[in-house]
Write a structure and sequence with these properties.
Blueprint (H helix, E strand, L loop, with lengths): L1 E3 L5 H10 L4 E16 L5 E15 L2 E7 L5 H9 L8 H5 L7 H11 L5 H20 L5 E6 L12 H16 L11 E4 L2 H7 L2 H10 L6 H8 L3 H13 L3 E4 L7 E4 L11 E5 L3 H11 L5 E5 L2 H11 L3 E5 L7 H9 L9 E5 L4 H9 L4 E4 L4 H14 L1
Helix pairs in contact: 2-9, 5-6, 9-10
């Protein structure tokens, strides 16, 4: 099961997994944008984009665990701070943890095995992580997903029924929308902006608490973890102070997400924009060297998972996609793009090292426009590109 969130929402995907009592892993990829309140040199509005991914692990239609992206264990550390757990694993102990699809989950189990945390704390942390991940996912309206049916994440500490989570979080998201535009994202940072007014209007204890947490370094999400509260409860608690302009809610610049302007998408469109998805760097460089002198804007993407998100920003006129890639086969990439109305008519040319009949049939079945066998000459590539660019 795979597709685009423009055509099926996360709620429906979770319901299908629950009804089918499926075991496996759901991967979701999306790009979020926010206005930077600044203008570029050309006067165009500047936006920031942040690419995110999530993994949800299932056993017989129930959730075992949720992980955000590659995970650097910071989420676990935030929860451990709430429970005043001072002991952490050493780098050597972390290195000894067996490889896992969910390193964060494996880290939790390592803490359990060494009696650094108990079962109650571990269960509470997992429930909190599942809740915050589903809060993010159920609020998505754009992105891509793949569900891989396979062996369950092991061992299992808890399993959670999907329906109660979905019901609760859907209601929370409706309330969350009412905080807009003052509060827009769990990743925003509260900053004290009018201490004098706060001191004249609120008890000293409340002012001290706000001063402690609203340091411009702690996100709303981290604050929720530290206090062991859900993100909506925390946001609603500070909302009146934001309305009064005593607190400001800002985006962090420390993550350094990609920045672009409204006029960015107009660049390089003279003859057309071509995206090449191939995990071999040399192929991307070769294609760039052939196409760019001919006036095309050629963009090489070497990570097929990231490419699925980036192509929605880049809006290419033509896509070249390798069939044999380690992280995700070109057939899957092509099929997922064809599920989106944005790429239903975009020419997609498959690159293959095999000149075989079966490869051509498979390529056609997933919606490929044509194929090109590697190695290819400059003339072969240009003839194929110009054939479809002229017709597009």
């Amino acid at each position: 099961m795979q597709g685009n969130l423009n055509e099926i929402d996360i709620c429906s995907i979770l319901q299908l997994i629950e009804l089918g009592q499926r075991t496996g892993q759901l991967w979701v990829r999306a790009t979020s944008f926010h206005h930077n309140n600044k203008l570029g040199e050309d006067g165009a509005s500047i936006y920031r984009s942040k690419q995110q991914s999530w993994f949800v692990f299932f056993l017989n239609g129930q959730i075992i665990y949720c992980q955000e992206g590659e995970s650097n264990l910071s989420r676990i550390s935030d929860y451990l701070r709430h429970y005043r757990v001072e002991t952490r694993l050493t780098d050597k102990q972390i290195a000894s943890i067996p490889p896992s699809d969910a390193p964060e989950y494996a880290y939790l189990w390592a803490l359990l095995e060494r009696n650094i945390i108990n079962l109650k704390i571990a269960g509470s942390i997992i429930q909190g992580l599942v809740h915050e991940t589903l809060f993010d996912l159920l609020g998505l309206h754009q992105g891509n997903f793949i569900f891989h049916q396979g062996a369950a994440l092991a061992p299992q500490l808890n399993t959670f029924e999907i329906a109660p989570f979905v019901t609760k979080i859907t209601k929370q998201l409706q309330e969350w929308k009412q905080l807009y535009p003052h509060i827009q994202s769990p990743e925003q940072l509260p900053v004290l902006s009018d201490k004098v007014q706060l001191q004249s209007s609120l008890p000293e204890a409340t002012v001290n608490k706000l001063q402690h947490w609203a340091d411009g370094k702690t996100s709303l999400r981290q604050l929720a973890r530290y206090l062991n509260r859900d993100i909506l409860t925390v946001a609603k608690a500070i909302y009146p102070y934001v309305q009064q302009s005593w607190l400001q809610i800002v985006y962090s610049d420390t993550n350094k997400p990609n920045t672009f302007t409204d006029s960015w998408q107009l660049k390089g469109k003279e003859r057309g924009r071509i995206v090449c998805i191939d995990d071999a760097i040399a192929i991307g460089e070769t294609i760039n060297s052939i196409l760019q002198p001919q006036g095309y804007e050629a963009i090489a993407l070497t990570n097929p998972l990231e490419a699925l998100s980036l192509v929605f920003q880049l809006k290419p006129d033509l896509i070249l996609c390798d069939i044999a890639m380690s992280e995700l086969e070109g057939y899957e990439v092509c099929a997922m793009l064809r599920h989106s109305t944005a790429f239903r008519l975009t020419p997609i040319i498959m690159l293959t090292g095999k000149d075989g009949f079966i490869d051509r049939v498979k390529a056609r079945m997933v919606g490929a426009t044509d194929y090109l066998t590697k190695p290819f000459t400059d003339t072969e590539l240009l003839m194929l590109v110009e054939k479809y660019m002229n017709n597009h």
